[in-house]
Hints:
- By secondary structure, the chain is mainly alpha-helical.
- Helix content is 57%, strand content 3%.
- Strands 1-2 form a two-stranded parallel ribbon.
- It is globular and about 60 Å long.
Amino acid sequence: xxxxxxxxxxxxxxxxxxxxxxxxxxxxxxxxxxxxxxxxxxxxxxxxxxxxxxxxxxxxxxxxxxxxxxxxxxxxxxxxxxxxxxxxxxxxxxxxxxxxxxxxxxxxxxxxxxxxxxxxxxxxxxxxxxxxxxxxxxxxxxxxxxxxxxxxxxxxxxxxxxxxxxxxxxxxxxxxxxxxxxxxxxxxxxxxxxxxxxxxxxxxxxxxxxxxxxxxxxxxxxxxxxxxxxxxxx
Length: 234
């Protein structure tokens, strides 16, 4: 049986009738779990989306393959440090820089062999929970999110089907197909009208410009050159 060496349990220390000594077996007991939850969603889960959508555009099948690609790793790390981390509160007892390093140790573990198709499954539910909130928070602060926009563009182009033919498994695919796929009569720009996915970003000019610029880069230069360009100028 193969498993990860990484273990992390964080529990809010609120037991009105007493509790067992969980800290003795490595559980981190905290006053507020929200910062830890946000860290997981916006760093770990968002990274999965970056691996999935860029990795599938570049022809990879497994998460460890995408995470081992230096360009995908660089893009993902830049997204985490330049954008996602700026929206997180302090996470007591956690070195977030080390946490990101540990993420990539986990992602590149070939024994796990997680598939990108699984990570991309129901992305229309995952992106609004893991990636879009970072861009929304940054927009509220007056900041842009070109890397989050680039990740959305990679996802949309995968669905569009003009560059690669992917098996899209998404419970909202009938709606998405009408917006973003050639078969549905749409194109990747159609995602900008999807309030269910992008929320207030559908009306944010900076995000729209970054998204369209990323689409243009991928279409004209290819995914490999685009991911390098987006990482370099974030």
